[in-house]
Amino acid sequence: MEPNTKESKKPDLMVESEEEFRPWSNLPDDILRQLIEKLYPVDRVRFCAVCRNWRVPIKGIQSVDKFPWLMTYLQFILYDEHTFEYTLADPVYRKSYTVREKSERERFYHVHASKFGWLLLRDEQRSEETTTCFLLFTPFDKKFIELPELPSSGYDLGVATFSSSPACSDCTVVAIGGKSYVGEENYIVISTYRSRDETWSSKKFCGQIFEPVKDVAYSRGKVYCSISYGLVLGAYDVADKTWNLLVHLRHDGFGDVLLDSYRITNHLIESDGEILLAIHPNERDWRVYGFDISKATWVVKQSLGNRALFLGATSLSLAAASGGDTRDIADMIYYHELDKSVGFSLTKSSSVREMRERERAQMAIVEYDEDDGVMNGDDETDYDHGSLNQGGGNEDEKQLFGWCASGVMNRIWIQPPY
Question: Where is the F-box domain (predicted)?
Answer without folding.
Answer: 21-67
